[in-house]
Specification:
The structure is a homodimer of 333-residue chains. Chain A has helices at 49-53, 127-140, 156-167, 179-187, 203-210, 224-231, 261-266, 283-295, 312-318, and strands at residues 2-8, 21-27, 36-44, 70-80, 90-96, 100-103, 109-110, 147-151, 171-176, 193-196, 215-220, 234-242, 256-258, 270-273, 303-307, 327-331. Chain A has 333 residues and is of the alpha/beta class. In chain A, the strands form three sheets. In chain A, strands 3, 4, 5, 6, 7, 15 and 16 form a seven-stranded mixed β-sheet that branches. Chain A has a six-stranded parallel β-sheet with strand order 10-9-8-11-12-14, with helices on both faces. In chain A, strands 1-2 form a two-stranded antiparallel sheet. The longest helix of chain A is centred in the middle third of the chain and has 14 residues, at 127-140. The radius of gyration of chain A is 20 Å and the shape is globular. The mean pLDDT of chain A is 93. At the A-B interface, strand 13, helix 7 and strand 14 of A face strand 13, helix 7 and strand 14 of B.
Chain lengths: 333, 333
C-alpha cells in the first residue's frame, strides 16, 4: 500500500519555505497484532512547530532532519488488530504528517464526532482552546470590569481568549493585522475594541485610546513591537500571559527591543510564560468548561480549513503572514 | 534655631551629580501643641530614590524641585508637645534630609535601640530586609536544593537575599562588581559561588559553570547585561523577582537589550516586579522572622556607614558605582 509522508528536508533559516519540506512515498507494511491502520483526516498546523524545526533546545524535542513532521492529527481507524479500536473509530493524537500510518494506539484518544465536528477537537476543544483557557484563567486572571488586551486576536488562540475574557466580564481589546480581522473581532467574537496594527501609526496611543483605564491583562501571542506598545499601557499589578512570540520566531538574529524590566518593577507587573501541558492535570476541567460554553453558544469557534494533504506545508507557512482566521486546519480526504 | 536642609536642585540627567542637590539654611519655628522636634541621626540612601528625582510617573510621587528630599530616617525626639513622644525617644519614618525638623508624629514609629542598633531599623529590620524577605519568599520561592542567583549580591538587599536563600537550603550564587565584594559574599554571607562581573569576560558561561544544574530563581537588583546573562541559564519554571534595575536607572535613552519573551515562553518562566509596600499587610510577620534570624546569628548584616550630613548626596551618588557593601547609611551627629 503506497503512502505519502512529509519529512523535514532542512531546518528553516528565517521564514520557512516549501523547500524545507520533502514529500516522500513509502510502502506501508501490513499491521501486526496490537496495531491499527490510520487514515489522516484533519491536520493541525501551529506556530509552535516552527520552534521544533530548529535544533535549539526548547520545551519539546526538535524534529529530526529527514524524519516525518508530526502535530495534532485527527485520523480514522481503517483496520484494527487492537481490541481497543475498531474500523470507523475516529482518534486524535500527535501523529505524523502521513496520509496513512500504523500505530499501536498509545497516546491516542477516541473522539465523538457526533458531539462536535472532528476539527473542533484540534481547536476549541483541543490544545488551542485549552491554551486560551489556562493562559487567561491561571495567569491573566481578569476580574470583572478590568481591561484585557489580546495580540494575535483573530488567531486560533486569540479568538478564544477574547471571548473567554468577555464571559468573565472584562473590557476586551484585540490587535490583529488587517481590517477584515478587525471587523471579525467585533462582529463575531464580541471584542469591545479592535486595532489593525498594520494601518495604525502610533500603536501606544491607539492602545491608550482603546483602554482609557489602562491595561490590566495582556495575553500575548506575538511579541515584538506590538508587545512594546502594550507594555507601556499596563496598570499597576498588570499580568502578562506570554503564550507565543510569532513575530520573532523567524528571526535569524536574537531579537532586540526596549528593556521591559523597568516597567516590570515600576508597576509590579507579573509576566509568565507557559505551554498548555503545564496544566495537563486540569485538562478535564478545561474541556468540560469549553464544551459547555460552545454548547450554550457563548463561545464561537472559527476555523480556516485548507483542503488537501499537499497543502500542509503551505498552510503552516501561511500562519506567519496571518492568512488564517481562527484555527488553521488542513482537511485531508 | 538654624538648620540645614538638602533640596532637589535639578532633576538628574543620567548619573546624578552634586549639583543636583542644594544645601539651604533655614530658621526653624518653635513647636506647636501636638508637634515634636526631631534631630536626624541616621539617613538611608537607596537606589529607588533616583526614580523619584525624575518626573516620570512611577510607583511613588516624584520629588519636587527646590523642595526637600526625603527617605528613611532615624531621628531622636528633642522636644515634644505630643503625648505619644517624649524627648529621648528614637523614631523611624520617611523624613526630610534636614538636620532638624518638626513633625506631628504621624507615620513615625518608635524604635527600641536596646534591641538592635538604630541603623538596623533602616536596613535588615527595615525596608531593606523586608524587600529581601518578601521578594524572595513570595516571588522567588526557592525550594531546598534549587539554585538561586542574586545580582547586586553585596548590596543592601542582595546581601540579605543570599543569606535567606541559604537558610531555605538553596545553592546560592552572587554577582558583584569587585573582588573584595566577591570575597565578602563567600566569607561573610555564605554564598556558594560568587562572580565578579567586571573581571569576567563571558558572564553566561561563568553563570553556567557556577550553576551546573541551571538557575531556578533569579533575584535581580541590577538589570541590564548581567540579567541577560542569567536569563539564558534559567531552568524550566524559573522565577525572576525583579527588585530593581540600578544598571539602567541613569540611562537617558530607553535602554535596549535582547528580548526576553522567547525565553519566558520556552521555559515557562515567571517574572514579577514588586516594591516592598505590596506586602505591607505582612510586615509584622517579616520583621519577626528577620529579627529571629538576626538574633540567632543566621542572618548577618553589613553596613557601609558614611559620617556627616554634608555627605548625604555623595553617599547616594556612590550607590551607582557600587561603593557600598551592604546597606549604605549616613550617620549624622
Amino acid at each position: 500500500m503506497s503512502n505519502r509522508t512529509i519529512l523535514l528536508n532542512s531546518r528553516p533559516v528565517g521564514m520557512p519555505t516549501a523547500n524545507d519540506f520533502k514529500f516522500v512515498e513509502q510502502e506501508l507494511a501490513g499491521i501486526q497484532p496490537g496495531e491499527i491502520l490510520l487514515k489522516t483526516r484533519y491536520v493541525s498546523v501551529d506556530p509552535y512547530l516552527r520552534g521544533r524545526m530548529s535544533d535549539a533546545k526548547s520545551y519539546v524535542a526538535p524534529f529530526e532532519l529527514d524524519k516525518p513532521i508530526n502535530s495534532g492529527v485527527v485520523a480514522e481507524v481503517i483496520e484494527s488488530q487492537n481490541d481497543q479500536y475498531s474500523p470507523g473509530d475516529w482518534v486524535i493524537g500527535a501523529l505524523d504528517w502521513s496520509e496513512m500510518q500504523i500505530s499501536n494506539g498509545k497516546g491516542l484518544n477516541k473522539i465523538d464526532t457526533q458531539l462536535a465536528s472532528p476539527s473542533a477537537y484540534l481547536g476549541v476543544l483541543g490544545m488551542t482552546g485549552l491554551t486560551a483557557y489556562f493562559g487567561l484563567g491561571e495567569i491573566g486572571r481578569p476580574k470583572e470590569g478590568e481591561t484585557v488586551v489580546v495580540s494575535g486576536a483573530a488567531g486560533a488562540v486569540g479568538s478564544i481568549v477574547g471571548q473567554i475574557a468577555k464571559i468573565k466580564g472584562a473590557r476586551v481589546i484585540g490587535i490583529a493585522g488587517n481590517d477584515e480581522k478587525v471587523q471579525l473581532l467585533k462582529s463575531e467574537f464580541g471584542y469591545d475594541e479592535a486595532i489593525n496594527y498594520n494601518s495604525t501609526e502610533d500603536m501606544p496611543a491607539a492602545i491608550a485610546a482603546a483602554a482609557p483605564n489602562g491595561v490590566d491583562v495582556y495575553f500575548d501571542n506575538v511579541g515584538g513591537e506590538i508587545s512594546d506598545a502594550v507594555y507601556i499601557n499596563l496598570n499597576k499589578f498588570g499580568r502578562i500571559a506570554v503564550c507565543g512570540s510569532i513575530a520573532v520566531y523567524n528571526e535569524t538574529e536574537r531579537p532586540v527591543g526596549p528593556r521591559i524590566e523597568p516597567i516590570i518593577v515600576k508597576n509590579s507587573i507579573l509576566m509568565q510564560g507557559f505551554i498548555v501541558s503545564n496544566y495537563a492535570e486540569k485538562f478535564p476541567e478545561g474541556v468540560q468548561q469549553l464544551s459547555q460554553w460552545v454548547n450554550n453558544g457563548s463561545l464561537k469557534h472559527v476555523e480556516t480549513i485548507i483542503e488537501g494533504f499537499d497543502n500542509i506545508p503551505k498552510a503552516f507557512i501561511d500562519l506567519f503572514s496571518g492568512a488564517n482566521k481562527g484555527k488553521m486546519i488542513v482537511k485531508v480526504d
